């Protein structure tokens, strides 16, 4: 009897272990903030889904951030948010002599999209703040002798900015077939107060970008690239004029698939580049000041490497470990109607609802691996491909394979919470769309089929589609 009992218990243990091992991370029950089992339809990012809906919806650690990882997360958060100053302080110094922002968080408040001074101050802001990037090139795509790819319109005391952006807008009103009005703002940009070489407008290409939401960056870095390549192969719908393609980026003698950025022009989270170009903080990968060789450097003290790779990895971890807001109101009848209209308008052909992360864990810039991001089913509502969005959105600025008219499909997860996180609803690469309706109506060329179907819908169906997008 004792031997039989032992064998029965042993078999039960084996069955339990086999059952446990067979359960993938996607199968595990995920609890919301109240301890209830979450509706599977709400899980935007698998185990990285968070159930926050307020100002910290983009700035909350994923549930797997526990124990010593919590310390790393908040160290990265502090380095991300803490304003840098000029000088050699090892913790907060190194800013300048030229820069675009005082901290990562100055442009990405609460890991979102800080409202730029484009709209409040008509371009470059006063007091060292703008919250937009200004890309400049010659008409042939080459750079100007005294400037790089980004115009640095801010500077520390005693240094002259490279130039300043002036923005103006013209507004035109249109009507849907049912009579409802909407309007579109067309931006006009010029550079004034050049520090050198007063460049003629006819010789210049200006491409203005407002900050992106930092939602789901860890999942983007863990994307199954084989699946993306398959999505690209399938992205050919001649009946709708749609044909997406991947951007490829040569970096350090290796060609990568571009994932991040408005034009999928980066293969990683550009931590080192952000500290260098945006903040003017030198590091091991970019040891020279961005203004090296310019007259701006006269009388400027060199402080050497101003942030360590270890500290930059804390920021890298923070961004990878941010949770993705859960979908909301998934069973609301209007939201469900809007989802049907989303598919009816063919929005899903570019804003792909479901993708997966790969089997192996992504690796941070200092070698840390993150297995928690692997093997997840996620819902970014993006194919991460380049699509021609038409002449109206053509910036004439190329990035890798991306032409001026081509833009990466924007992930929609978390988009409905932007108004709570950042108190504004400016969308598209330069913020010209003041709400989701305007963003849709700016869609041209490959986006025209969705725009035109949306335009012909009844007001109730348009409102339902918007409400669905706001639920993501």
The major β-sheet equals: 2 strands, parallel
Structural class: alpha+beta
| Helix-strand sequence | HEHEHHEEEEEHHEEEEHHEHEEEEHHHH
Quantity of strands, as a count: 16
Distance between the termini: 58 Å
Could you name the ranges where pLDDT drops below 50 across 5 or more consecutive residues? 1-27
Taking all residues together, what is the mean pLDDT? 91
Total of domains: 1
Produce a short descriptive summary.
By secondary structure, the chain is α+β, with helices and mostly antiparallel strands. It has 13 helices and 16 strands.
What does this entry look like structurally?
This protein has 13 helices and 16 strands. By secondary structure, it is an alpha+beta fold. The chain has one domain (46-470). A two-stranded parallel sheet has the order 1-12. It has a two-stranded antiparallel ribbon with strand order 2-4. Helix 2 (68-81) packs across helix 8 (309-321) and helix 9 (333-344) packs across helix 13 (459-470). The chain is globular and about 65 Å long. The model is unreliable at 1-27 (pLDDT under 50).
């Amino acid at each position: 009897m004792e031997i039989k009992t032992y064998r029965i218990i042993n078999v039960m243990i084996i069955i339990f272990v086999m059952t446990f091992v067979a359960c993938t991370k996607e199968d595990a029950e995920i609890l919301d903030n109240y301890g209830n089992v979450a509706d599977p339809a709400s899980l935007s990012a698998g185990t990285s889904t968070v159930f926050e809906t307020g100002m910290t919806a983009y700035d909350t650690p994923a549930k797997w951030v526990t124990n010593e990882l919590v310390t790393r997360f908040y160290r990265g958060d502090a380095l991300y948010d803490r304003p840098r100053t000029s000088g050699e302080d090892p913790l907060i110094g190194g800013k300048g002599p030229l820069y675009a922002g005082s901290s990562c968080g100055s442009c990405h408040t609460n890991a979102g999209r800080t409202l730029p001074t484009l709209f409040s101050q008509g371009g470059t802001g006063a007091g060292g703040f703008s919250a937009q990037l200004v890309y400049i090139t010659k008409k042939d795509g080459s750079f100007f002798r005294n400037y790089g790819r980004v115009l640095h319109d801010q500077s520390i005391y005693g240094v002259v900015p490279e130039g300043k952006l002036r923005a103006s807008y013209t507004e035109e009103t249109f009507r849907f077939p049912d009579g409802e009005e909407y309007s579109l703002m067309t931006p006009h940009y010029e550079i004034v107060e050049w520090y050198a070489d007063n460049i003629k407008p006819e010789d210049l290409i200006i491409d203005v970008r407002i900050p992106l939401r930092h939602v789901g960056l860890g999942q983007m870095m863990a994307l199954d690239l084989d699946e993306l390549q398959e999505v690209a192969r399938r992205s050919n719908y001649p009946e709708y004029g749609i044909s997406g393609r991947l951007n490829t980026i040569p970096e350090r003698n290796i060609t990568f698939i571009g994932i991040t950025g408005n034009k999928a022009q980066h293969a990683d989270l550009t931590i080192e580049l952000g500290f260098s170009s945006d903040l003017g903080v030198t590091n091991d990968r970019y040891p020279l000041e961005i203004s090296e060789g310019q007259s701006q450097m006269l009388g400027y003290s060199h402080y050497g490497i101003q942030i360590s790779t270890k500290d930059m990895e804390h920021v890298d971890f923070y961004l990878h470990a941010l949770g993705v807001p859960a979908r909301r109101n998934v069973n609301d009848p209007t939201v469900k109607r809007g989802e049907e209209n989303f598919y009816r308008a063919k929005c899903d052909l570019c804003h792909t609802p479901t993708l997966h992360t790969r089997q192996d864990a992504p690796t941070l810039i200092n070698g840390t691996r993150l297995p928690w991001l692997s093997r997840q089913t996620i819902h970014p509502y993006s194919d991460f491909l380049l699509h021609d969005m038409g002449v109206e959105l053509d910036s004439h600025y190329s990035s890798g394979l991306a032409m001026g008219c081509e833009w990466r499909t924007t992930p929609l997860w978390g988009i409905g919470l932007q108004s709570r996180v950042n108190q504004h609803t400016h969308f598209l690469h330069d913020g010209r769309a003041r709400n989701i309706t305007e963003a849709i109506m700016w869609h041209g060329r490959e986006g025209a089929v969705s725009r035109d179907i949306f335009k012909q819908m009844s007001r109730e169906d348009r409102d339902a589609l918007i409400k669905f997008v706001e639920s993501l």
